[in-house]
Amino acid sequence: MSEMSYSQKIHPGSQFPELKARLLSGEEVELGKPGQDADWRMVIVYRGRHCPLCTKYLNVAEQYLAALKDIKVDLVAVSGDSAEQLQSHLEKLQVSFPLAYGLKVEQMKQLGVYISEPRSEQETDHPFAEPGLFVVNQEGKVQVVDISNNPFVRPELQALVNGLGWIRNPDNNYPIRGMHQY
């Protein structure tokens, strides 16, 4: 029996870690920093090219870009895939938001996502992150966090985007939830 180790989870309200990954253009992107037309950022951590559910989720996320832009939230997705794996994954992706690659195991640990080993070389050739979704507010703090240990459980994007619109409305004065640590 192998020894169990437990990852540290990112807590709501904490500073999102300063993590960088690369885009296929060669540009380095800081995952938690929004682009110029937004002051919040959604970070989707996905398993990689080998996961058809990730492909579907990312393609669905594309449909919400305009709604996210309206509430000043931009989107980046990242995996532990190599540049070559991401390049070949583009054949199945119809997205215009930035896709970063090369997330290292140490960075996965900083994010607190679950990490899996491939079942075979046909699946992939490296440990990979299970799904995670983080929404980082204008102060660089984690406003929303969702992590899963398998590809079948992820936030439903319509509900999430609607909820973010509600949270972003100053009339609602909605605080970061889940701040108590027991």
TrEMBL record:
InterPro entries named in the record: AhpC/TSA (IPR000866), Thioredoxin-like_sf (IPR036249), Thioredoxin_domain (IPR013766)
Thioredoxin domain segment(s): 10-166
Keywords: Oxidoreductase, Peroxidase
Pfam hit, one: AhpC-TSA
Molecular functions (GO terms): peroxidase activity
Listed name of the protein: Thioredoxin peroxidase
Organism from which the protein derives: Planctobacterium marinum
